Amino acid sequence: MRTEIIERMQEIVDGCMGEETPACQATCPMHTDVKEYVRLIALGKGDEAIKVIRDKLFLPATLGRICAHPCEGKCKWNEGKSPMSIASLKRYAADNFDLEENWDLEIKPKTGKRVAIIGSGPSGLQAALDIRREGNEVTIYEKLDVRGGMLRVGIPAYRLPRNILEREITYLDKLGIEFKLGVEIGKDLSLNELVADYDSVVIAIGRHQGRVDRSLSNWDSKDVFSAQGFLQEASLKGDVKGVGNKVLVVGGGDVAMDCCRTALRVSNVDKVYSVCLEDSFDSMASSNHEIKGALAEGVKFNHAQAIKEIHTDSNGRVISVTLKKCLFMFDENKRFAPAYDEDDTRELEVNTIIFAIGQGVDGAFAEDIAIRRPNGTFDCDKETLQSVSNPKVFICGDASGESVIAIQAMATGRRSAISVNRYLNNQDLKENREFKDTWSYDTKLDMPTDWSKIDGSRLGMAELNPSERIHSFDEVALGFTKEEAENEASRCRQCECKLCMKECIMLNDYASCPKELFREYLENGSDKMDQMIAYSCNECRQCTLKCPKSYELRDIFTGLKSEYATKNSGIAPLPVLKEADKGQVKECSSEFCTSVSGKVRTEPIKKKTKYVFVPGCTVPAYTPGGVEAVVKHLRECLGEENVGALLQCCGKVTKFIGEDELFKERNQIAIDKLDEMGAEVVITVCPSCFKVFKATCKNQRVISYWDLMHNLIGIPEAAKNIGVNSDVVFNIHDSCVTRDEITHHESIRWILDQMGYKREEIERNGMNTRCCGVGGMVCSSAPELYKRVYTRRANDFNSDYILTYCGSCRGTMQAAGKDAVHILDLIFGPTYFKKDRKLRGYKTMDEMWSNRKETKYRLDNLK
Hints:
Blueprint: H1 3-15, H2 23-27, H3 34-42, H4 46-54, H5 60-66, H6 70-73, H7 86-97, E1 114-118, H8 122-133, E2 137-142, H9 150-153, H10 162-174, E3 178-181, H11 191-197, E4 200-203, E5 209-210, E6 224-226, H12 227-237, E7 246-250, H13 254-265, E8 271-275, H14 288-296, E9 300-302, E10 305-312, E11 318-330, E12 336-348, E13 352-355, E14 359-360, E15 393-395, H15 406-424, H16 466-469, H17 482-489, H18 499-503, H19 505-508, H20 514-524, H21 542-546, H22 553-566, H23 578-587, E16 594-596, E17 611-614, H24 618-622, H25 624-638, E18 643-647, H26 652-656, H27 660-676, E19 681-684, H28 687-696, E20 701-704, H29 705-713, E21 729-732, H30 742-755, E22 758-759, H31 778-781, H32 783-795, E23 801-804, H33 807-815, E24 819-822, H34 823-827, H35 845-860
Parallel strand pairs: 1-2, 1-4, 2-3, 4-15, 6-13, 7-8, 7-13, 8-9, 17-18, 17-19, 19-20, 21-22, 21-23, 23-24
Antiparallel strand pairs: 5-14, 10-11, 11-12, 16-18
Helix pairs in contact: 1-20, 3-4, 3-7, 3-17, 4-7, 5-7, 7-17, 8-15, 12-13, 13-14, 25-35, 29-30
């Protein structure tokens, strides 16, 4: 292919957003197909939606409740201030349609390999699942006597009922994964033993090591808890011993909110206070819905505050704290560096303090088998998660230093599992691997949206009454009803950039988007691609108008057609187009062409003629009388001696089919005759002629007959108000060839108004008009496609009466079943009524050529 074609294709392959992932899916570390399952829920197909969810997630009900849903943070609806309730919709699908008998239990043949997983949190469970599916035996070692890790002991039951989590974990039981609970590695069993006994080991421990602020006096009072210790005890026992009636929770994140709300449910607690460095609710790290839940339940917030001192009584029991004002949290480089006003203080009476200021990984059991970083996480390859100190050991979840939320932990579990499976098969851990499959990434998809035209707000979920729910750990959020879920799902914008595909019928026959199509061209070369692709383009440019990046696909297809013809001795290679070329030969021959100047008809022309009317090919074939009437009207207004006519093909059909050299030859015949006639102004009625002559006439100005009437000579006297009493309401079909010639659109409507005919506008018109189907000579190269295109165009109209100002468009709309008239029929004909509906124009090719000869005769014998 020519360099310019390759460059244009490459530009589209590099920049087309047709294959880009929606932001929700790209942001989800597990890349759940959010758009699809939300679409299915909106359609009432929850049973299909859960299949889409389970294709990526085995904990749909759990994640539907507790996922931090980063997908919602990148939802397109954020621009409209109302992101989709994606997690809640996931929960709806899981709660109502996730039947155990439909769970996929397929496992590949046994490999004889054994893998140990340390930790049964989200990352360990995911790693175990993906390793087991490959036919390996998997055993999970869990320090606690319960399964789920931080999902089980770090998230309160009012958010995640234990039966929900446990039910979903039984999926691993069904797959044959073995659990060994209450086994602490480093105490009951050494890591050395595991590494020796198993083919591979995955360390998947979570952040179970709580933190308190040890810089404060009395930090070690037994009334001071870490968030992790407090939540774990509440989770395992349903209560926490030793908690006083006035609780202070330090921190502004989701864990802090969990502690606040859990404390309210613990025995003997009357008041819960929150203290955080952030100066407002908006700046807090916690999710909005968690803050709202805490407020509803009675938590008292103290913003921009920190503990200056913990006060205890003589028995070492906490009795109060002194709070100090936080001036700011971050320095000018946005580093965490809080500053305080040590003199701006106040006292707060409390007897229990819970620090929710972060948690750590306790990896002391690893000894020297897996090297740890200074922050306690394990040193491993960022991409493969393989330990830097032992190739048999892999790290995932919090232990890798990467995950912060459950869904991200699961993604690291999947990534480590892929690495383990490759390791067990002696495969390279990085070769031909797409690591972004388990990372959040920024999509290139960016679709402009006019939110002023879109209604809909995020649907909240019903909850238990705050005054009642604080007395138990019953689940607070009640879930969506069917109606609520379907209404919320129906708000989804279904983000994708296939606007060109929604518009172009032809493209859908060959690809899912331009990126895919042109990538195939670049990989295979045009010689190995179906030539019909290029010859199926209508050249209407709707794809470009729809494209957010305005890519010019038309130029690529015209370039390909030109290349195909060049390689075929200048002739279009499709046999079906031979007739089109033969027609061009006849249209350019002296048998069907003539030139007429002023009053004097000579050949060759010697007299200079200022205005030359060029009627084109299709109009003379349709209405010889109309062509003659135009010339007479022009002579009446501009002077007989100043107006001539040239019946000569502009060559556009030749150009359409890529025969560039022949086009130049045929077009030059017309140009030479115009120059010979001394023409200063070329007047057209054919949109294609207008565009061709506007591009090729160097010595003439080109104007449409419609603009000339509108701006200078007016319509014929006999045509004024002729349509006032007509019972017809016309829809206007604007030609796609002159979609950018706004004056043509305005002039046609002015003319119709001057005649008194009624009209009604349609949406897809003017600059946004659609092709009738003839464009690109698709009518000849791909008749079946041509029919689909003109049928769609006909369906755009809300009237059966179509006004056109292009001969080809008129014939096509008639073929589509419409009563299509050319505007010349109205200008030079009697008043048009509904009863006048009939088939117009030639019925056979012989009749068409006969009309062309008649037009020549009329021009040659003008009086």
